[in-house]
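tmp note - GTPase Obg
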Amino acid sequence: MATFVDHVTLHLRAGNGGSGCVSVKREKFKPLAGPDGGNGGSGGDLVLVADPGTTTLLGYHRSPHRSSDNGGPGMGDHRNGHNGEIRELMVPIGTVVKDAEGNMILDMNEPGLRLVVGPGGQGGLGNAALASTKRKAPGFALLGTLGFEGSVYLELKTLADVALVGYPSAGKSSLIAAMSAAKPKIAEYPFTTLHPNLGVVESGDSRYTMADVPGLIEGASEGKGLGLEFLRHVERCTALLHVLDCATLEPGRDPLSDLDVILGELAAYPVPEGQKPLLERTQLVALNKIDVPEGRELAGFVKADLETRGYRVFEISTVTHEGLRQLSYALAEIVEQGRVETAAAEARKPRIVMRPKAVDDGGFSVRVEGGSFGNIYRILGAKPERWIQQTDFTNEEAIGFLADRLAKLGVENELYKAGAIAGSTVIIGPGHGVVFDWEPTLTSTAELITAPRGTDTRLDDSKRRTSNERREEYFGRMDAKASARAEMIREREAGMWRTDEEEQNEDVRASGKNSEDDGSTKED
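out:
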């Protein structure tokens, strides 16, 4: 079962904001005493906190889904909804937070550092807060917005001053156990160390941390063994201590060849931008296992060669503790010097300049996209997208309030500049978003003009007719009427139709003829 985890994907869902309330106060003898709907509460945030007492990400490996409480809805009588409780997620110092695309958000390398990684949703305003001199009794309220929902990647990089590197079974775990109070697992087989071990070493007035990294083998930078998985813990170290085994029984191995292999793997490992490459950091060599006669003899042979290369070499034994005191003081000296250089570099860092937002920056943008039935105008921005979430589209008054807010923000002016006309398709938000058929708010006749700058379509469309053109049009209408009358007379003479008077006379003649026929029959 895993006991140490240094990278995990965390799935977050922050609390949603509560919706505002629509309410009208009612009292005796005061049937309409004004709106009194309360505001909705904000959703709870998800906050990462760098905690010195946390050493692993194991808890998030076992339960990677974390969420916070939703905000409460507003109520009548000016009662606001409760805010969701903020949930703090403790992470080890040295945790690097990245987004889903792998971009670094923050390096939490200081104790107590806080990062709101999942902001909660904003609560909606009630109708009491929306009341104004022009809107005395709003019949709508704003809805609460959704909280953050997504994933972040946590990667732990150990904060240690000295890193122990070397082949498996070189004695790194035994060395950190002998120099500190750490109790790593020690056994007589390779790859005993499966995760980094930290130990605090006190040397005189100095105190520094030492990290035992799992053993490196040839090809570790390409994924062989366990080196690539844990080389990230070497990135933050000030000094590297090469622990070389002088009593190995494996054929083809010796301290010099082991060192060359380790240097090649360290050179192939890419460090983040802005950090010093691993081989450019201070390096010391510890020839271990000199308590074995063959090991002491071999250490004496290779020490001169290593010093010729420029390394400070220490002959040590983790069993008898020989040479550990001198090694401890040497490491303390290097660590103190590195801390002074780090402090000087921090003092030379450029100051953070806070620049105000430009006056003409409305906080949104209009993007023109091609479509099958014409251009589509997409509006992107924090405010418009949030206002869309807060609008109840089943309430016409709420839709009108949204239109007023967008117009005041300058959205309609930007749409007009982008070439949109009445009836154009407008989408607010990324992806599918919310689709509208744009109906611009008209405050003057000039807003109907969609001609290019410097022209006026009204001058082209309103051409005045001359007297001859009006006379020709009049005579044309008269000729058309005369032709229509002549055609009607021809149809009448042909018997195709009769007037009402003619039809009435025909009926009278027909009735008189029938009367004569009846009289003659009676005389007979």
